[in-house]
Amino acid sequence: MNSRAERLATGGLTPLPLGQLRPAGWLRRQLQLQADGMAGHLDEFWPDVADSAWIGGTAEGWERAPYWLDALVPLSALLNDDRLIAKVERWIGYLIEHQDADGWIGPGSPDVWPRMIVLKALLQYHSAYADKRAITTALRLCRRIDVILEHTPLYEWGRARWADLVYSLDQLYELSGESWLLMLGERVRQQGYDWIAYADAFPYREKMTEAAFRQLGADDDRYLASHGVNVAMGLKAFPVWSRHGESHHAAFGRMLASLDHYHGQATGVFTADEHLAGLDPAQGTETCAVVEYLFSLAIALETWGADESLVDRWEHLAFNALPASARANECGHQYDQQANQVSCHVTEDRVYTNNGPDSNTFGLAPHFGCCTANRHQGWPKFAARLWMRSADGLVALSYAPCVLDTEVDGQRVRIEVAGDYPFGDRVDISVAATGTFPIQLRIPHWAHGATIAIDGGAPTLATAGSTLSLHLDWAGQHTITLMLPANIEVNSRRHRAIAISRGPLVFALAVTEEWRQIGGQEPYGDWEVHPLTPWNYSLEIDLESPALTVERRSTADAVFTPEGAPIRLHGRATVVPQWTFRHGAADTPPTSPCPGDGAARDVVLLPYGAARLRVTELPWHPPRT
After folding, report:
1. Closest Cα to residue 238, out of 288, 192, 179, 286?
2. How far is CA 124 from CA 119, 167, 377, 381, in A?
3. Residue 419 and residue 425: Cα distance in Å, rounded?
4. Are 385 and 15 in contact (CB under 8 A)?
5. CB-based contacts of 446: which residues, under 8 Å, 6+ apart?
6. 3-class SS at 585?
7. What is the mean pLDDT of residues 470-474?
8. Does a cis peptide bond (omega within 30 degrees of 0) precede residue 622?
9. pLDDT above 90 (res 2)
10. Residue 546 — φ and ψ, nearest 5°?
11. What is the pLDDT of residue 402?
């Protein structure tokens, strides 16, 4: 093995080794819910993991067990949970010990795609537990992949998701200095789908019809390139391949802009149920697409640094779309979530392009089991990158509560971030170190009037949308207090509808929920959710000066529930009788201004992630004088 190589990327950020940053406060409780729920127990009862062919069983031997392991490795490290660590060691140990003589790992045909996921798990395991066997195993597997691709080029899912493999190859190169990995990366790129050209053409600008879908096969580029999860994963191609020469930052921006323009939703995700599905807020977004989009954005931040627009979108997905996709106890999830989601029920008359009747119900494996295994990566990979390393110091990207125990230039550093961000405006940061180095603090673009105070000194103004660089002698103990005030913002949507946000939180009109179990066995049962109160409201609001009342509550154990949400908004609205169901979902919002029936009622808007029934894109009308 050659000496360690230089990093390929310049000017970007590096994640801390897994375990050096650990979640605290509400975020730790969120990850603990995962450990206590499906993520921490799938290997005990769900055949596709418990009896996986990857560990010598007879069940599915393709992507599901690798997906689960790719999430469990960082979850175990962030929580430092002995039970989860033992599970990880058993699985990784089995893969290492049962690697074929030629380097291949796992069952089945020479399909490279699921091995891409295994590589990510091995590299995270090395990051967390410094086990050199993981690197040796990964290198041997990549040698075998190189031989296979010479004769059997990437196809289907591997062809669309090639950037995940190159991301791992780059990490292995930086760890080992083995230059053949870069040549393999070039082969992979040449065999993969051209997402960078796709950004300029962007051929899928409307919802795919069922008739058009039926004409496509799984190996058809039109199928692969309109498939929502492939698109979310394909976004990695831009930052990953930028590390090999020409920057594709501008093309990445065009890709995001096109997704927003033709398929975007208020939370920053795009619709895809299963394929790109247009702008209607009743169309769905697959949970796998949410977590893969999050990871693609994280890789973009690693490559290009703390780009405010990317950090803002990353937070939007994490604090809204991610928690909305699961039951509060993390014992069930949806295949598809909807921005305007007013009933979660089994229906043959459905708005989706090609997803099944149970796609927006909550359960163990509604519609298809990929999300059952894959969705658990969302929180751990987000939490592990709240802070990252710059060339000479540390960078704060998001202020969810956490604790860092790390080193900068050989000196020990401990940083504690306290508060209930993003639900509250105050962030307290304590720093204990032994020397001088820069700490960069992101001031979000929405935080107008932000202030910073150091060691109890007078607060000074900080510019919204900027990065503060504090190059100080941190010897001893120091405190930083950030105030990040957020205003209520009214965002325009189609048909002159509006969406409400405050800071990184999107708010939705809450609909009282009735949960009905329709199958399965608790705690992993299958559930419908039905509305008990009207959902077809028009919000009474002055768009220039929205007079919604902010209510704050103490941070509860489960912040993403109607009862536990630490912040909510109060307003007035009228019912719109003509706004009803269509194809099992809320019809397109009527064009505003829309006065409704004239009888104003008090309504509550909850954070999007706290409401499983919600209306996010609302018609509106001005206040009556």
Report:
1. 192
2. 9, 12, 12, 10
3. 8
4. yes
5. 312, 464, 486, 487, 489, 503, 504
6. strand
7. 94
8. no
9. no
10. -65, 120
11. 98
What predicted TM-score, i.e. pTM, was given to this entire model? 0.97
What domains sit in the chain, N to C, each tagged with a CATH number? Answer: 388-419+426-483 (2.60.40)
pLDDT at 9: 57
Q: What is the Cα–Cα distance from 539 to 87, expressed in whole angstroms?
A: 49
Residue position matching structure tokens 């059997």: 152
DSSP code per residue over 450-473: -EEEETT---EE--TTEEEEEEEE
Using CA atoms, how far residue 344 sits from 300, 337, 523, in Å, is: 34, 9, 18
DSSP for 114-171, please give it.
Answer: HHHHHHHHHHHHHHHH--HHHHHHHHHHHHHHHHHHHHS---HHHHHTHHHHHHHHHH
Q: What is the pLDDT of residues 265-293, one digit of tens each?
A: 999 999 999 999 999 999 999 999 999 99
Bridge partner list, 469: 440
Task: For 329, list phi and psi in degrees, rounded to 5.
Answer: -90, 5
Distance CA 428, CA 432 (A): 13
| Mean per-residue pLDDT of the chain | 95
Q: How long is the chain? A: 625
Of the candidates 292, 483, 471, the residue with the CA atom closest to the CA atom of residue 394: 471
Q: How far apart are CA 341 and CA 168, in angstroms?
A: 37
Distances (CA, A) of 625 to 467, 573, 576, 603: 43, 15, 20, 19
Q: Are 437 and 392 in contact (CB under 8 A)?
A: yes
**Host H or E run for residue 558:** none
